[in-house]
Design brief:
- By secondary structure, this protein is of the alpha+beta class.
- Helix content is about 45%, strand content about 15%.
- Strands 11-12-13-14-15 form a 5-stranded mixed β-sheet, with helices on both faces. The chain has a two-stranded antiparallel sheet with strand order 1-8.
């Protein structure tokens, strides 16, 4: 039974910001610390800061010989069954952190040349060079460290979806970056069969971690060694009939060896290769898992586009339907724009509560329209601000001014103004164009017909993130 079924949410994975896990077994996904780096949001930044603070504290204690302090910090780590993520096939029990695992992690770190030489910078580096550290262990460690933000995410999601929570629940160990230590509090959390439940944003889970020792060794270290051997015209160089020279990976592995100890040694000798690997991962972030992957083939949990669109179009324009319209647009956009836009925040308050943003999405795009907006057009768009106007009359300048007032350098300066209709759509676009030419931001107006066209686009190209209608509307506004 999935979370949505247990709590009668009547919505599928496509409309949920968290992983809709099966409560009777673990889902084969991992929390990837690299995904936290790739996600440009305040929540993710808090998570990254926690992970970095914990990891650096442990490394500093090991490096300074304070083994007991390092052990005490690691000893708190445990298998986080509350998330129902991992490799177990039956009851959640985890294949990552278990009994004595913290001691094994300490031993691996304390004996590693990568630690002594200062090669490790982030937790994800351990999977490249530390023996015994694998996807599940890195995921488990990350989950423990970011438990506080996960609790906050769980609380907000439960409040929005009406999932009951129990007060006075022990939080489990929470990392405190001020004291550089662990603490425990009493919090509100959902309880299922006497067990705590932590919801996890679907934007930070992966089927495998982005950092991979096989990928690093085969595609970066060996490629660097190949160039060295070719330049030296060594005995490993083979002359082909075409006159070209080659060095095979098989011969390189035979000469240099394999395994994490070899990776560490070669990285010490050629640290620029690790820099290149980190830069490649930073510049080419992995895409969030699709809803199709998250539901593991259960097509009944994929978007029903006609239902989502009808929920918007059938609302009568006017103030009475404003809240229903807001929620219907949010549901449609969550399915329509994922995985480019993730983690919607509803009714976000700014300026000490004096203003409110209807919906704010985090821009996690690595391809397509929302990616090009950031990278090619240089539009500040870490967040996409959305205002919903269920008006029976045309949109005019006050509505545009309201949306512009939600922009900022940190939140972003791209917004979608969603409304019912315009008697003269050209005038609406012209007003948005005026805002652009006055350097007040980028506003893309979308009416009911535009929403229909966006849905048709997605139905024809379900895996596309191009959104040609948005591309065309953007071009109109900036012309």
């Amino acid at each position: 039974m999935r979370i949505s079924e247990r709590f009668n949410l009547s919505i599928s994975q496509s409309l949920l910001e968290f992983v809709d896990v099966d409560l009777d077994r673990d889902a084969p996904f991992f929390i990837d610390p690299r995904a936290l780096h790739d996600l440009d949001s305040e929540w993710a930044e808090e998570c990254v800061a926690l992970v970095q603070d914990f990891f650096r504290e442990v490394l500093s204690k090991i490096s300074s010989g304070n083994d007991e302090r390092a052990k005490s910090l690691l000893r708190i780590l445990r298998e986080p069954n509350e998330t129902h993520l991992g490799l177990s096939r039956a009851q959640p029990r985890g294949h990552g952190l278990g009994d004595n695992s913290s001691v094994k992690v300490w031993e691996a770190l304390s004996e590693s040349e990568a630690v002594r030489s200062g090669l490790l910078e982030d937790l994800e580096d351990t999977i490249l060079m530390i023996p015994g550290i694998s996807n599940d262990i890195v995921s488990d460690i990350t989950t423990n460290i970011i438990r506080r933000p996960l609790i906050e995410f769980t609380r907000e999601s439960c409040q929005y979806h009406g999932i009951p929570m129990t007060p006075g629940v022990s939080s489990g160990a929470l990392w405190n970056p001020l004291s550089h230590g662990w603490e425990t509090r009493f919090v509100e959390l959902p309880i299922v069969e006497s067990r705590k439940l932590l919801l996890v944003p679907k934007s930070i889970v992966r089927k495998r971690l982005e950092y991979s020792p096989e990928d690093y060794y085969n595609n970066f270290i060996l490629e660097a060694l190949r160039e060295i051997e070719l330049n030296a015209n060594s005995a490993l160089v083979e002359l082909l009939k075409s006159g070209d020279k080659r060095v095979t990976k098989t011969s390189l592995k035979k000469k240099y060896g394999t395994g994490k100890a070899v990776i560490t040694r070669l990285t010490r000798e050629h640290p620029e290769v690790l820099d290149k690997y980190r830069a490649a991962k930073r510049d080419n972030p992995a895409r969030c898992l699709s809803n199709e992957t998250l539901v593991q083939g259960d097509v009944t949990r994929l978007p029903d586009w006609e239902v989502l669109l009808s929920a918007v179009l059938e609302i009568e324009p006017g103030r009475a339907g404003a809240d229903a319209y807001h929620r219907a647009v949010e549901s449609l956009f969550q399915a329509l724009f994922y995985p480019s836009l993730v983690n919607p925040i509803r009714e976000s308050r700014i300026h000490e509560g004096r203003k409110r943003i209807d919906i704010k999405f985090t821009n996690a795009a690595s391809t397509g329209f929302f990616w090009r907006i950031n990278t090619h057009h240089r539009v500040p768009a870490g967040y996409i601000v959305i205002e919903c106007k269920n008006y029976s009359e045309d949109i005019s300048n006050p509505e545009l001014d309201q949306l512009v007032g939600r922009f900022s350098p940190t939140r972003g300066r791209l917004g979608l103004l969603v409304f019912r209709h315009a008697d003269n759509s050209d005038v609406c676009v012209e007003r948005c164009r005026d805002a652009f030419h006055d350097d007040r931001g980028w506003i893309l107006p979308l009416d009911d017909d535009d929403l229909k066209n966006l849905v048709e686009e997605r139905k024809l190209n379900p895996n596309s993130s191009t959104y040609q209608l948005l591309e065309d509307r953007f071009a109109e506004v900036v012309s």
